[in-house]
Write a structure and sequence with these properties.
Layout: H1 12-23, H2 28-59, H3 61-76, H4 79-86, H5 95-117, H6 121-129, H7 134-172, H8 178-187, H9 191-223
Helix pairs in contact: 1-9, 2-3, 2-5, 2-7, 3-5, 4-5, 4-7, 5-7, 7-8, 7-9, 8-9
Length: 240
């Protein structure tokens, strides 16, 4: 600022001003949606994969012996290594989906696994005694136990998905994506654009975090409701 060289570092006001200028451009919405949908899709794919692997690990010892080392490897390997390796087999447009999914999976795996481990043993014995179906056990026994861990994991994984997904786009450079815009800002030394697009990524990450945590809460509340079956005499309650 003392040197008055915006190419080195722009002021916050200049960055915000550039952000508003970008919002009026024709390709802005297209760029945001391209990255948002791919990274968001990768997030949900990671949630499904992580949950399925955690359930398998909890149910079968042999599955845990295979899955746990693989999850540890995913945590240890740098994101850039996965990105470069994936470029040998995938188009750059699919890269952010895969990488965000890969980074989210271990977070969800750990959360669901901890939730299952912390399930009340007495409630599990009662469910076994009353011969509840696997679906009802998952709904009324394990889901409430997993929920606190899963909520925290969603908050962490949402930000991680956007960080890793954008990094994949910077390296893969698919057209009309947030990572591509960051790379162009670097090439043309547009420091204001760099900060403006970074703010967009941060805002999208926070918005996505709010959306997925709200969706999780809605799903949880609805899953725990009991419906009264009017055809059953004697005031017996049914969940179907």
């Amino acid at each position: 600022m003392l040197l008055d060289k915006r190419i080195i570092l722009v002021t916050p006001i200049a960055a915000v001003k550039r952000l508003f200028e970008l919002c009026t451009q024709a390709d802005f919405i297209k760029t945001v949606l391209n990255s948002f949908l791919r990274i968001g899709g990768g997030f949900f794919a990671g949630v499904i994969t992580g949950t399925a692997l955690a359930v398998l690990s909890a149910a079968f010892t042999w599955a845990k012996a295979i899955i746990s080392p693989a999850i540890s490897a995913v945590k240890a390997v740098p994101v850039a290594s996965f990105i470069i390796f994936a470029l040998f087999f995938l188009k750059s447009s699919a890269l952010s989906f895969l990488i965000s999914s890969l980074m989210v999976t271990p977070v969800i795996y750990d959360a669901v696994g901890k939730g299952i481990e912390n399930t009340d043993k007495r409630l599990a014995e009662a469910a076994q005694l009353f011969r509840l179906s696997p679906a009802k056990k998952a709904r009324y026994l394990y889901f409430p136990s997993v929920m606190p861990f899963l909520t925290a994991a969603f908050r962490t994984a949402a930000g991680l998905a956007f960080k890793s997904g954008t990094a994949a786009e910077v390296i893969g450079q698919p057209d009309n994506t947030l990572g591509d815009m960051l790379y162009r800002a670097k090439i043309y030394l547009e420091t204001a654009d760099l900060f403006a697009w970074t703010m967009v990524i941060i805002l999208l990450g926070k918005l996505f975090e709010l959306l997925v945590t709200s969706l999780l809460n809605v799903i949880y509340k609805r899953s725990q409701r009991l419906k009264i079956n009017s055809n059953i005499k004697g005031g017996v309650c049914s969940d179907d």
